[in-house]
């Protein structure tokens, strides 16, 4: 569990105070008691150390060590048992000057479990374990993806750290239609009628040819798009010409087989299929190439082909669908490999992985076994997103409050959202800025006091003590979230009130 800003602040204050003292000799006692350890055994051990300290040659050092141990023993006897997370306790003579005495004792119940047992007598108090507690070693893996992009990041406390980005080679819809014809191309819609390809709409039916069964049928247009090309091929068959892109595929008879060949590979004399009353073999009589930008249109039909200016031509739907599907797989495999490389080395510090993106894409990625079992076990949830990249990461965190319910980022965001909701609905029940909020504190009207961690620590402690005397709940908000930044811009202090007050 991550430490809250309040817990970190108080722990930092304790560490700062302990580190401000230094003994002339090894006289300061530091003891760390792990969770579950019996406190009376620690007291016994300290009593034994008192006896051992009687052998110290220096009278002042001996006196200070024994005094520190006695102060600590007396303090520990006030605990009926070891606190749930263990206990860190420090004692020593902090009086300035030789021969003076000011034995003090500090104890802290850590917000996370202690798993070490330490007894040390030194010139300084041992604070490195407390300092390590303040470092948030636990992180969440974040993945936002769609069929073209993916971004991997870590959620460290309240900070989103981008690790890696990747872009797929999936052709976009408007680039997929390489097999295109000029807008005036006539497409056969029944035995007697043709319509220009530019006037066709998705859902309409066109005539297609079944090469396997040698018969015509009707096939629905399932997609339509436009592209711009720099090169145009004009393929002349008998008395008709098909003007198209170099990628446009024709059905060509070679060695008694029907083969699919793009315009750029066609040759004069190749046999293609022309339609009058029936499909018949016809010879390409001319091929010309023309340079210059030209607008082209393509349609996708269920039966893979249509009849353009009387010639049976391929549509790009299924071929490009296969290309796209292969590119999707490569894209997903690459994301999975990046996840393995970035997340698995984190070991137990990785608390979970959250994956976000368009719902169908996320499901395709997770259900097709692209990622290993070790990673699958770490996934704690998915979210349907509208964005990718950095915006997507922020949206993912915003939508994952249920999954991050125990994390400080969610607690802070919830506290600030309650303030902003109240501000919108009932502005007389909130204050912000130092003048108005201190006035509300004086009136004992504050229910929740919100303090930015950007404020001076002394000021925070002063306001915290003042608020708690009036029964208010104090929440310290970091500046690492969007809401925390907003609080800082409001003066670093705000409050949700118990009752309405008139703002002066």
Give a verbal description of the structure.
It is a single chain. With 504 residues, the chain is of the alpha+beta class. The protein folds into four domains: 5-134, Translation, Eukaryotic Peptide Chain Release Factor Subunit 1, Chain A (2-Layer Sandwich); 139-170 and 323-399, Nucleotidyltransferase, domain 5; 178-315, Beta Complex (Endonuclease - Pi-scei, Chain A, domain 1), CATH 2.170.16; 408-497, 2-Layer Sandwich (60s Ribosomal Protein L30, Chain: A). Helix content is 32%, strand content 34%. The protein has 13 helices and 24 strands. The chain has helices at residues 5-19, 39-53, 59-76, 128-134, 173-176, 317-343, 359-367, 373-378, 389-399, 408-425, 434-442, 457-469, 482-489; strands at residues 28-33, 87-93, 103-108, 118-122, 139-145, 149-156, 159-167, 186-188, 194-196, 205-210, 215-237, 240-244, 249-254, 257-262, 271-275, 279-301, 305-308, 311-314, 350-357, 379-384, 430-432, 446-452, 473-477, 493-497. The protein has a five-stranded mixed sheet, with helices on both faces. Strands 10, 11, 12, 15 and 16 form a five-stranded antiparallel sheet that branches. A four-stranded antiparallel sheet has the order 3-2-1-4, with helices on both faces. A hairpin with a 2-residue loop joins β17 (305-308) and β18. The longest helix is centred in the middle third of the chain and has 27 residues, at 317-343. The chain is elongated and about 120 Å long. The relative contact order is 0.11. Mean pLDDT is 88; it is low at 172-177.
């Amino acid at each position: 569990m991550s430490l809250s800003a309040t817990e970190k602040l108080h722990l930092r204050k304790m560490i700062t105070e302990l580190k401000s003292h230094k003994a002339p000799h090894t006289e300061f006692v530091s003891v760390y008691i792990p969770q579950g350890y019996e406190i009376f055994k620690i007291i016994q051990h300290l009593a034994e150390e008192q006896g051992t300290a009687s052998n110290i040659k220096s009278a002042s050092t001996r006196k200070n060590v024994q005094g520190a141990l006695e102060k600590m023993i007396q303090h520990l006897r006030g605990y009926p048992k070891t606190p749930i997370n263990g206990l860190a306790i420090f004692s020593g003579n902090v009086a300035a000057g030789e021969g003076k005495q000011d034995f003090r004792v500090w104890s802290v119940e850590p917000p996370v479990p202690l798993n070490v047992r330490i007894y040390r007598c030194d010139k300084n108090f041992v604070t490195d374990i407390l300092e390590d507690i303040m470092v948030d070693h636990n992180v969440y893996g974040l993945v936002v993806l769609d069929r073209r992009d993916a971004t991997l990041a870590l959620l460290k406390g309240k900070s989103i750290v981008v690790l890696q980005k990747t872009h797929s080679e999936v052709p976009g819809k408007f680039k997929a239609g390489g097999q295109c014809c000029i807008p005036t191309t006539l497409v056969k819609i029944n035995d007697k009628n043709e319509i220009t390809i530019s006037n066709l709409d998705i859902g309409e039916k066109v005539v297609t040819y079944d090469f396997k069964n040698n018969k015509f049928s009707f096939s629905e247009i399932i997609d339509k798009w436009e592209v711009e090309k720099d090169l145009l091929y004009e393929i002349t068959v008998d008395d008709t010409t098909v003007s198209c892109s170099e990628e446009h595929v024709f059905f060509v008879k070679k060695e008694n087989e029907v083969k699919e060949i793009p315009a750029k590979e066609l040759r004069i004399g190749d046999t293609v299929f022309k339609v009058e009353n029936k499909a018949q073999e016809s010879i390409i009589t001319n091929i010309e190439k023309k340079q210059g930008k030209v607008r082209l249109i393509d349609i996708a039909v269920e039966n893979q082909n249509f009849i353009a200016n009387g010639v049976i031509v391929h549509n790009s739907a299924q071929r490009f669908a296969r290309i796209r599907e292969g590119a999707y797989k490569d894209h997903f495999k690459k994301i999975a490999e990046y996840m393995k490389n970035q997340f698995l080395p984190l070991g137990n510090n990785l608390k979970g992985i959250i994956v976000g993106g368009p719902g169908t894409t996320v499901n395709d990625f997770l259900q097709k076994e692209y990622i290993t079992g070790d990673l699958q076990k770490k996934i704690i949830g998915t979210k349907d997103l509208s964005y990718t990249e950095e915006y997507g990461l922020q949206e993912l965190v915003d939508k994952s409050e249920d999954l991050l319910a125990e994390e400080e980022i969610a607690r802070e965001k919830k506290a600030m959202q309650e303030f902003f909701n109240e501000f919108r609905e009932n502005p007389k029940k909130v204050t912000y800025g130092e003048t108005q909020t201190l006035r509300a504190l004086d009136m004992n009207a504050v229910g929740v006091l919100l303090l930015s961690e950007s404020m001076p620590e002394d000021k925070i402690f002063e306001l915290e003590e003042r608020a708690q005397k009036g029964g208010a709940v104090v929440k310290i908000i970091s500046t690492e979230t969007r809401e925390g930044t907003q609080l800082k811009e409001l003066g670093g202090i705000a409050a949700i009130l118990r009752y309405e007050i008139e703002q002066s």
